[in-house]
Amino acid sequence: MISIVIPTYNSEKYLKQCLDSIFNQSYKNFEVIVVDAHSTDRTRIILSNYNIKLILRKLQGEPDAINFGMSLTTGN
Q1: Are 20 and 48 a contacting pair, CB within 8 Å?
Q2: What Rg do the C-alpha atoms of the chain give, in angstroms?
Q3: Cβ contact 23:6 at 8 Å
Q4: How many CA atoms lie within 13 A of 52 on its CB side?
Q5: CA dist 1 to 52, 56, 73, Å?
Q6: Is 1:75 a contact under the CB 8 Å cutoff?
Q7: Which residues contact 75 (CB under 8 A, 6 or more apart)?
Q8: What is the 3-state secondary structure (H, E, C) of the chain?
Q9: How far apart are CA 1 and CA 8, in angstroms?
Q10: pLDDT for 21-38, tens place per residue?
Q11: Is the N or the C terminus of the chain less surrounded, counting Cβ atoms within 10 Å?
């Protein structure tokens, strides 16, 4: 299994395209972990349409979100 970590904050403009690209791959043995910094746009509405692991975390920067998400992965 592979793990995909996506940091988000008010990412509604490109988020659906990003997730559709992941879920439309032929390889299906993956997990998607999204670390959202309490977005105020439609980000969480978009995320609710996908089978993902959603983590809400205080905005502390993209590197922090990625590192935190990586600490939760179960794949390679």
Answers
A1: no
A2: 12
A3: no
A4: 27
A5: 14, 23, 10
A6: yes
A7: 1, 2, 3, 30, 31
A8: CEEEEEEECCCHHHHHHHHHHHHCCCCCCEEEEEEECCCCCCHHHHHCCCCCEEEECCCCCHHHHHHHHHHCCCCC
A9: 22
A10: 999 999 999 999 999 999
A11: C
